[in-house]
């Protein structure tokens, strides 16, 4: 099959991606989602503004999951800033370790006592 020309009109519909439904796409000033780029005194207010947009977003959970998966270093994603995402990752890691210890502890305890 011949390769289409790069000058050909884009007539094929692009498949829907979660980003297409994001509330931030309608914002005129997308820089509010990166409050670290503003003077330090303005960061809390800018971050609050960005989070307000996120709260009304229909894809907030997907956005947060994507940001966590790619370990997004900056900005407001899924309604959380970089420090909040870092804290969430730490909590998730601790929870996974705790669950692994419980599961491993039960199996190891039964084998060690011979009661299993």
Keywords:
single chain; 116 residues; mainly alpha; 3 helices; flat
Are there runs of 5+ residues with pLDDT below 50, and where? 108-116
Pairing-aware structural class of the strands and helices?
A: mainly alpha
Mean pLDDT over the residues: 86
Q: What order do the SSEs take from the amino end to the carboxyl end, as H and E?
A: HHH
Q: Output the number of helix runs.
A: 3
Q: Helicity range of the residues?
A: 40-55%
Distance between the termini: 63 Å
Number of strands: 0
Describe the structure concisely.
The chain has about 120 residues and is an all-alpha fold. The protein contains three helices and no strands. The radius of gyration is 22 Å and the shape is flat.
What are the SSEs and their pairings?
Layout: H1 43-55, H2 60-69, H3 82-113
What does this structure look like?
By secondary structure, the chain is an all-alpha fold. It is 47% helix and 0% strand. The protein has helices spanning 43-55, 60-69, 82-113. The longest helix has 32 residues, at 82-113. The chain is flat, with a radius of gyration of 22 Å. It starts with 42 loop residues before the first helix and ends with a helix. 14% of the residues are buried.
């Amino acid at each position: 099959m011949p390769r289409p020309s790069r000058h050909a009109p884009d007539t094929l519909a692009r498949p829907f991606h979660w980003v297409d439904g994001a509330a931030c796409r309608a914002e005129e000033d997308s820089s509010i989602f990166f409050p670290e780029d503003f003077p330090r005194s303005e960061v809390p207010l800018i971050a609050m503004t960005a989070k307000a947009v996120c709260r009304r977003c229909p894809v907030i959970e997907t956005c947060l999951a994507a940001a966590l998966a790619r370990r997004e270093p900056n900005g407001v994603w899924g309604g959380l800033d970089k420090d909040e995402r870092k804290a969430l990752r730490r909590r998730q890691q601790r929870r996974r370790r705790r669950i692994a210890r419980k599961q491993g502890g039960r199996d190891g305890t039964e084998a060690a006592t011979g009661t299993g």
